[in-house]
Amino acid sequence: MEPREKIAHLVRRLGLGGGAREIEKYVSLGYDGTLNRLLEFDGKPKDAFNPLRAAVNPDAEDAEPGYYRFVAVWVHALISTDEPLREKLAIFWHDHFAVTVADVEHGIMNLEYMQTLREIAGLPFSQILERMAFDPALMRQLNADTSRKGHPNENFARELLELHTVGIDQYEERDIMDAARAYSGIVIVDEWWMAGKTNKERLARMHDDKSMLLGTGFVPAFHDDGAKEVLGLKGSFGPHELLAHLANHPLTARHISGKLWHYFAGTEATTAILDSLVGVWQRTGGDTKAIVRAITERPEFWAESAVRTRVKSPVEFVTDQYRSYGIGDLIAPLVRDGQIDEALDKKLWEIWGGFYYLCDRLGMSLFRPPSVAGWDWGKAWITTDTIAKRIETDGPMRWKKPDPNKEEWWPDEAQKRLIAYVKNLRPDTEEMIVRGVERFFDSELTDDRRQPIAEFLKGLNAVVIFGGADERTMGWVLDRTYRLVRATPEYQLC
To answer: Is 149 in contact with 121 (CB distance < 8 Å)?
Structure first.
């Protein structure tokens, strides 16, 4: 595999796609430099604006601290971030520790959940589990805060074992019951409604206190301190001991390593792959970044059966498109510094809202997984309906109407970038035009897919158009070319 294609494979799998624009950012670093740069993130996410500003609606009297406002923070990061692996892993953990706003109707809880996912994305699993198991949104989703001595709630305990740690069919009912008993006494502390009379006042209090006004507490009188046994752990232990035991359990290492392999490699892990990744897990204490690096070191990750064979999820499909056009760069000037009570530019909301709408239309809404087990991945994303909608899906800022009194549309900044890229190739055949669009979006069609598109372009006199026509006509040709490329099976893959 050529060096550029190896880097492109990393950008597709460890990053968020982004076509030629994104790949060229890494080429000068070489393969090792690219891998290191992708893995180079720590601490809190570097958001372009204070997340609390997303709650400000200039058309409403009071602020609106709902998830539908705060999700814009994550959408902006997906479009613009220079830490793509952080966000790629955050989506993985969102799927793993699934929370839906249909069950957690509390905007601030969802904001904290989202920011926690993004902050802990690359940490060792023991730290991830400790943070997420005490996250108020996840606790409310699984009723963990209702477990009391004599009345343990098994819902959280069952999902903790089956989904979050050791995996399905690896425990007995007694393990569930005793895990629920170990977690009894944990309560959610919510000061949001007591922090002011209006949402604006409460948000100001959050900002001043540097606090989400949420947390968890422990009530000893509610805790069952009797003897317990969970998967070999015996004693009168509580939640922290339970979580540490589960995080370090060999079945957890196997379960999470296998999920990470499937997420990044797109294939099922063989016994040899799992043994190798579990070995890394044991040597590094379940370090997520070390596991991801180890995945890239497996020859199977680079096999023909693994390259350009993984179906893009809806979020990946739309993010890849937006980043290919460089939408993040184009909207960056609209993100201006401001106080927490200052509204963000309405044009930004059009971009963010369009992104979320497209993902939802293709079958994946952040904060709305279909169940606590998350989404079905891979080929499950592809149906007759979603393929038709993928063909129709294109990014923003492509066309504009300079004169509102005339029905004349001209290329906007995003479309101009596609035009310039293909034009700079100096195409003298229709096939070169198709290949230019492929390369811009980092797709690779087979000859039998490419040839019919080239024949279609021949009927449009596309080569003549690129030899001297105006931008409007070239943009029109590329619109049709890209739509046909989007209709191919190869474009659905990464």
So the answer is: no
* Distance separating alpha carbons of residues 349 and 432, to the nearest angstrom: 37
Which 3 state secondary structure label does DSSP give 311? strand
Residue 428 falls inside a structural domain: yes
CB 44 within 8 A of CB 54: no
Would 57 be classed as within a structural domain? no
pLDDT of 491 = 98
By the 8 A CB rule, do 378 and 314 touch? no
Give the separation between CA 16 and CA 66, rounded to whole angstroms.
26
DSSP state of 124: B
- Sequence-distant (6+) residues with CB within 8 A of 213 are 108, 190, 191, 192, 195, 202, 205, 206
Domain containing residue 447: 398-494
Amino acid, single-letter form, for residue 415: Q
CA distances from 145 to 127, 222, 432 (A): 20, 10, 61
The answer to whether the beta carbons of residues 245 and 160 sit under 8 Å apart is no
Cβ–Cβ < 8 Å for 240, 223: no
β-partners of residue 229 are: 234
Q: What angle do CA 453, 454, 455 make, to 5 degrees?
A: 90
pTM of this prediction? 0.97
φ, ψ at 202 (rounded to 5°): -65, -40
* Contact indicator for 126, 244 with CB cutoff of 8 Å: yes
407: which 2 tokens?
A: 């029905």
Q: Is residue 486, in this structure, part of any structural domain at all?
A: yes
Amino acid in position 92: F
**HSE, side-chain direction, 13 A CA sphere, residue 248:** 11
Give domain status of residue 64, yes or no.
no
400 three-class SS: strand
Contact 128, 288 (CB under 8 A): yes
CA-CA distance, 371 to 56, in Å (whole number)?
A: 30
Q: What is the DSSP string of 172-217?
A: -HHHHHHHHHHTTTEEEEE-GGGS-SSHHHHHHHHHHHTS-SEEEE
Mean pLDDT for each 10-residue chunk of the chain (494 residues)? 96 98 97 98 96 96 97 98 98 98 97 98 98 98 95 96 97 97 97 96 97 96 97 97 98 98 97 98 98 98 96 98 98 95 97 98 97 96 97 95 91 97 96 98 97 98 91 96 98 98
Residue appearing with tokens 């079945």: 251
**What whole-number distance in Å separates Cα of residue 98 and Cα of residue 193?**
25
Cα(73)–Cα(113) distance, rounded to whole angstroms?
Answer: 13
Question: Long-range contacts: 198-205, Cβ < 8 Å, 24+?
Answer: 198/62, 198/63, 199/55, 199/62, 199/63, 199/64, 199/65, 200/62, 200/63, 200/341, 202/65, 203/52, 203/55, 203/63, 203/65, 203/340, 203/341, 204/340, 204/341
* Number of domains within the chain: 1
